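Input sequence (697 aa), recorded before submission:
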Amino acid sequence: MDTSQNPKKIRLSALAFACVLLLLVYGPLAGWFETADRFLYDRFASHSPVAALDDAYIISIDAPRATTAEQLETYRRIIEVLERGGVRRIILTRPPEVAATEPLPAWVPDLRNGQSRVYVPLRHRFAPYAARAGVVDFTSDVDGVLRTTKLWQLSDGVMEPALPLAVALDGDDWPANPRMANSDDEVYLARYAPVPRLDANTVLGLSFNSRQLYDATVFVDAEPELVAAAATLPSGQYVTSSEIAAAMLADVEQQRTILSPAWVEAMEWLLPMLLAIVAVLFLPDRNRADILLMTAGMIVLLLLAEALALYVVKVRLDVGRPILIFTGVSALCLWLIGNPRRVTSDAFKKGSDFLAAGRLEPAFAEFRRCPPSDTLAAVMYKLSLAFEEQAKPERAEAVLQWMKQTHGPVKTTGDKAAKNDGMPQRLGRYVIERRIGRGAMGAVYLGKDPRINRPVAIKAIPIAKEFEDEELKEARIRFFREAESAGRLTHPNIITVYDCGEDKGLAYIAMEYVPGIPLKDFTEPKRLLAPKRALELAALTAEGLDYAHNQGVIHRDIKPANLLYNPKEGALKITDFGVARLTDNNRTKTGIVLGTPMYMSPEQLGAENLTGLSDLFSLGVTLYELLTGEVPFKASNIALLMTKITTEDAAPVANRRAGLPPSVDAVLAKALAKRPENRFSCGAEMAIALRNCARIS
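Predicted structure, token format:
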């Protein structure tokens, strides 16, 4: 199924997947999301701004071996010192427990009459005599981190405040805060700004001036710092009960308390559903780039919303589930849409196979799935000619009409056909505009097919002048066999051959015109390509050769001059299959053919039967030159050159250019092996090796 053409089917699949995800995130995967949510909250909370409780101290009583009576006596003495010093509030977070069967110390009833206001836990026996009591319940999560506690808790059918909230509510100068009134809200802890600690023995010493604690808030406990830590905060700090109460009281009085109101829970249910609907409605109609952009933007937006809610509004918001829902639906859409390059490549390959097999209608259907490009236009033009050959002019016209609708008319540049330098004005139906080069067997012209107003490259050979009688007959056969073999090749990295013929004593091949720069221009030492780019271009060449070899065609003249590179698009085309001929396994020897000796393989120089591995050797020589600016084998005459190619090993490129990884020499050594069986088994294998080198270069 071509899902890329069925957004409705993708949307239905995305809707079903979103429903399944919703059931999972609020069902079996709920525990996992709680863990992920805690992780996100801890990351944000660890950097949240905090401030210490104003004018506050913690007095620690070191009483690991003291009895309850001794601890109570120490508490009495400290409270007396604090009373004399004019302390405003005394908070006992965990005073010693007094059994119900034992009498209270005589000083306890006097707590209510003291100058300082004393606050104790709600269930303690001191509670009836304190200024106010509150709930002390600091229960950590399953991972041992204290993140949340209730502001109000139900006790004997009555909603009672937490101890820090009770202390704040008892202050005359503390303004009423509606955020503290909701009994369903939870308060979240983040970080603890340390409060100064005083040792009990110091406070009880004769030299201690209690007036320095005037109007201060003092916590008294028997929990030494760190040693008696009651919990761990999201920031990673180990804190005692008094430190937890001090952090909560600071947040409450400074109105920086992080709350989780009841409406947040409703929002955490509603937001995943809304994002699931948004994803289902808008993502299936988008391409992969848009989906990735929208997904990244939504994730950033949700994380930003959580950070703003936490730092500005002081509200705890869980965005883990919405992120997963949107990301999950996005991933499904990406998978269903498929990789456009892969879809295009598969369609192009299928269409090429159908075209080679003469199944023109399936080929037309596959090619229509590909996006417009010069390569596609070239192949479609070949398809229209094939329809004409099958006496189906109406289908040929349909192909041309489709090309005009998708590609539009192509304008060509240049003056009218020139008449100088022996350049013909026309070859067959093609109008010649100018000469653009010379190939191995003749001149190359830029022409135009007037039928569809498309530029073509035309290679022309003065076959009537070069050969006579029987040689002319053989040359003509070889030429059209050459065109036939090249015409079978349909690959993004190979110039497409459209047509061939003979006119005015010139045998010609009309082929795809591709603007580009021959890689020969990048073999000068001062103009060398970056190693990574050279390796990638060599990999593209290897892939094109692999395709040609599988079609039974050997190039026989791979060199930088026959590789066209378009830097703007990063595209490469193998050109001039002018010396290629159809592989004939029945022959015992093919003979030496046209080519450039310094790029030839040992077996090509030895007039042996050639395989595609000969082209891989030539590609190795080409890559060597692209990397170093020199060919690996040079000599003053052909005989010496042949000896070097067949017997000597190439010098490592690492010795000629710094920064190349050792793997490049390993690939070149394999490509330039003297015996074909020691080289890469095919172009595809060599392309993989080259790309592996490019990744580490």
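Checked by second reader. The first helix runs from residue 7 to 25.
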